[in-house]
Amino acid sequence: MSDHQVSPIEANRRNFLKGAGLTGIGFATAFVGLPASLTTTKVEAAAFSDVDILNFALNLEYLEAEFYAVSTYGSTLVKLGVISAEDETGPTTGGNRIPNFSASPLAGVASALRNDEIDHVKYLRSALGSSAAKKPAINLNALGYGYSSVSSWLKLARQFEDVGVSAYLGAAPLISSSAYLAAAAAILSAEAMHSGAIRWECVGNGVGSPAVDSIDIPPTRQAIFDLNTKALAIPRTPSQVLNIVYAGGRSMGGFFPNGMNGGITTQ
Questions:
Q1: What is the pLDDT of residues 172-200, one digit of tens each?
Q2: What is the reported pTM?
Q3: Which domains does the chain have, with CATH numbers?
Q4: SS3 of 161-212
């Protein structure tokens, strides 16, 4: 068979991937399901190592864990003993415990989210071992909301969860180690459950959560889940994720005033 001929099996596989929006995995673009018009940066799959990718995820988990720890406990990961002062390169600032959160029907959900995100930090740090990135400086109040009420908390929690799902989904095709891929897939599944729960609470409580970028789908009764027209979850490239968490900054800003730590730090 010549280099330009394609077997029937391979042709069928390509047609399936094309129909599912999954073409280009590991080749021209780094992330699945994004047409060129939505891809801000084309990245060769070999550009990032598995350690880079998992540390990118770890930075996001630090952010989520700090958000839930501060909003429910009023304490940071260092104060809670999850990580030591030597495990961070900057403090976590901003945010506060939600007033009267313990009396809210969402207190149980919030506690579960807090525990899960803290466990994700521990899980990734364990998987990465000595290669684990330290927690960077984090500004929890980057958007100016999230802590005045349960509704404000839902507004920000929804954004964190949906962006987290998209980041893991985008990263999955880049991971070569089966062990690391299994770790990322396990967390992705958990984050997807978080996203669905928080989106449903937003809808049920009439909470509007603004779109974080042009491909975001805020929760409404017509869009319960964050899915595209093919009922598939929406992935984001590292550049797209950084643009959100850096509040438009190229190498720092927003929730990460000094930037992320690790091998993927710049848009």
A1: 988 999 989 998 999 999 999 999 999 99
A2: 0.84
A3: 8-245 (1.20.1260.10)
A4: HHHHHHHHHHHHHHCCCHHHHHHHHHHHHHHHHHHHHHHHHHHHCCCCCCCC
